[in-house]
């Protein structure tokens, strides 16, 4: 890359993103709708994934992957129109007269909750992979990039979506812990299998960046912090309630309703901490309304070498916010499961008060 192209690239990547909430909702819904349409197509033409792997792969590419890529690049100016059109097509297909093939939906999936989890995870992975590669290309609008002081961009919601997916999986574990008492994974095993690898990946990334002097935007997570540390620590916090340990064993002695209320309270506590922690770290550089402002950002950038906390200010303070998101979504997922799960056990809601 010559000097002029390098300058153009730097100028491009300096632009800060700002995506409207309507666009964010539409973008997140689009892969879910496409996956539903894909299932309808496979059902209508009796295409079984196990028997026709390559045909299913082609269908996935043209019905799911390619439309998402086009929506995030060439057709980004028509996001709302395209998503609404797909929703209308999906609803019309379902409402077609004499359409009785939905009974075979079970040939592809087990039950509705698993469908939601699978589709949500697929949505997160597809959007993350596409945006990681596309965001620095001119064909991708810069309004999808990460924001700094105000607003939100599409790239800002990636970690939050991973946290939401993790909380949905955690709600399934808690649900079955309440039904089948004592039948859960051990805390130490899950820590070694999921938390430690993420910490090692985060450490490896930090070392490689520091040793290679690779350019990074420290406003995102800080000097040493990165995505893997956040995921690892949130995962460690979640294991306290989703694995076999004294705390989770005590919690399941209460009714599911009380557990849900407890998780909402925990979410609120983490949310309060996420608001007060920046004030504790550098109180004199916040406005009276506790807003994160350019003056605060300049202070943090000028003093990152003086304190490990300030060096990783963004990563540390965001951790409590992500924990709040996790427990809030965990409670909401448990409510959802309590109404829709087909495996409801009457004994799960009759714990000791």
UniProtKB/TrEMBL annotation:
Places the protein is found: Membrane
A single BP term in Gene Ontology: protein localization to plasma membrane
InterPro entries, per the entry: PIGW/GWT1 (IPR009447)
Signal peptide (from-to): none
Residue intervals passing through the bilayer: 20-41, 53-72, 78-96, 116-135, 155-175, 261-286, 306-328
Record key words, sorted: Membrane, Transmembrane, Transmembrane helix
Protein topology in the membrane: Multi-pass membrane protein
Entry's Gene Ontology molecular function annotations: glucosaminyl-phosphatidylinositol O-acyltransferase activity
Gene Ontology CC entries for this record: endoplasmic reticulum; membrane
PANTHER family given in the database record: PHOSPHATIDYLINOSITOL-GLYCAN BIOSYNTHESIS CLASS W PROTEIN
Name of the protein in its database record: Phosphatidylinositol glycan, class W
Annotated organism of origin: Schistosoma bovis
